[in-house]
Design brief:
The chain has 353 residues and is of the alpha+beta class. The protein has two helices and 22 strands. Strands 1, 5, 7, 8, 10, 12 and 13 form a seven-stranded mixed beta sheet that branches. Strands 2, 3, 4, 6, 9 and 11 form a six-stranded antiparallel beta sheet that branches. Strands 16, 17, 18, 20, 21 and 22 form a six-stranded antiparallel beta sheet that branches.
């Protein structure tokens, strides 16, 4: 029984370590984690950008630095628990998940970009219900590539959590914020559309339009962050890349995001013209122009329902005409037979007389 429990705990720890990599503040200036336990006591904390005197209300840290430049920043860690906690502090490269959430590399994966530019103390001890401000520096290498670079800084704690079966699992929960550094130099924002495919969905009703389905991938092939907007046209109809009310789609340099757009109310006209219009924007106050991307494929959309209906109607018309002709020939044949029989009867009558 002990061996089995240890096996479950080991497996659970691995799953937890993979699933609970990081939780980053994206909309609010503070991010908090709850439910982590150390010695059966819950630990809750938050992380915010700060000045040397305390939190300053920002949601992220952003800099524009020249190659070789350095910026001094501060991180405020608030211990919302009723016990003293020692937090591990770390920095790593940042990335965006498939659902658009900002994250940072797990501790088991080595950073190769701006996560290596951040220097911060390894730990900080915070008293119950207190906030501690920790300085950190961002130092850009002299040979850094111009453009946007994303990283994150985090405060983490090693604790335990309970499984549904009552067993304990060890989790390393991290809470942090994003650090965005723009290296001064030539900005080259650009986006490309890849893996474009189209299809048409027929309606069973020949007088009802169908829909066009367009799937493609947008690749941020430049060196700046991009907000991706745009629309897809099919025939006379138009649909946005994302439904109304959806959050903005952000791509870091090198990122790719797949889009799947459905355009309803499209009539099948054998070949329906499609236009994919992608309009990238730089999420900053600078007026750097970004070239829109436009692809103009077409989708094969034969009106099968209408063709089938017309074919059935033609078959019925032809069948009716053939039936009418066959009956007419039969009537004419009967008339000819009757006439011939009458003629023969008349000849027989004449021969008798």
């Amino acid at each position: 029984m002990i061996s089995s429990t240890r096996g479950r705990r080991t497996a659970s720890w691995l799953l937890a370590a993979a699933a609970l990599m990081f939780g980053l503040a994206t909309a609010s200036p503070a991010s908090a984690a709850t439910g982590v336990r150390t010695d059966a006591n819950p630990i809750t904390w938050s992380v915010q950008p700060a000045t040397s005197t305390g939190p300053d209300g920002r949601s992220r840290v952003e800099h524009t630095l020249k190659p070789g430049g350095t910026a001094l920043e501060h991180l405020a860690v608030s211990n919302l628990s009723n016990q003293q906690v020692t937090f591990a502090l770390s920095a790593a490269d940042g990335y965006l998940t498939d659902d658009g959430r900002f994250n940072m590399l797990p501790t088991t994966q080595q950073s190769v970009d701006s996560g290596r530019w951040i220097s911060i103390a390894p730990t900080v001890t915070v008293q119950p219900r207190q906030t501690q401000t920790i300085p950190f520096t961002v130092t850009v290498p002299a040979n850094a590539e111009p453009g946007d670079h994303a990283a994150g800084v985090a405060a983490s704690v090693l604790g335990t959590s309970q499984n549904g079966d009552g067993s304990s699992v060890t989790v390393d929960s991290r809470i942090g914020l994003r650090v965005l550094t723009r290296v001064d130099g030539a900005l080259a924002p650009a986006a490309t559309v890849e893996s474009l495919s189209t299809s048409f969905k027929q309606s069973w009703n020949p007088f009802t339009p169908g829909s066009v389905h367009v799937t493609f991938t947008v690749h941020n092939s430049g060196n700046t962050r991009l907000i991706i907007e745009g629309r897809v046209h099919a025939g006379t109809q138009t649909s946005p890349l994302e439904p109304a009310g959806s959050p903005q789609v952000e791509l870091l340099p090198g990122d790719r995001r797949q889009f799947s757009v459905e355009i309803p109310e499209v009539y099948p006209t054998f070949s329906v013209p499609v236009t994919v219009q992608v309009e990238p924007q730089i999420p900053s106050s600078e007026q750097t122009a970004v070239s829109p991307v436009q692809n103009t494929p077409s989708v094969w959309a034969p009106p099968y329902s209408l063709i089938s209906m017309v074919t059935v109607v033609l078959i019925l018309v032809i069948a009716v005409r053939l039936t009418v002709r066959a009956r007419r020939r039969k009537v004419l044949s009967l008339l000819r037979s009757a006439r011939e029989e009458g003629r023969l009867d008349a000849q027989r009558s004449d021969s008798r007389s």
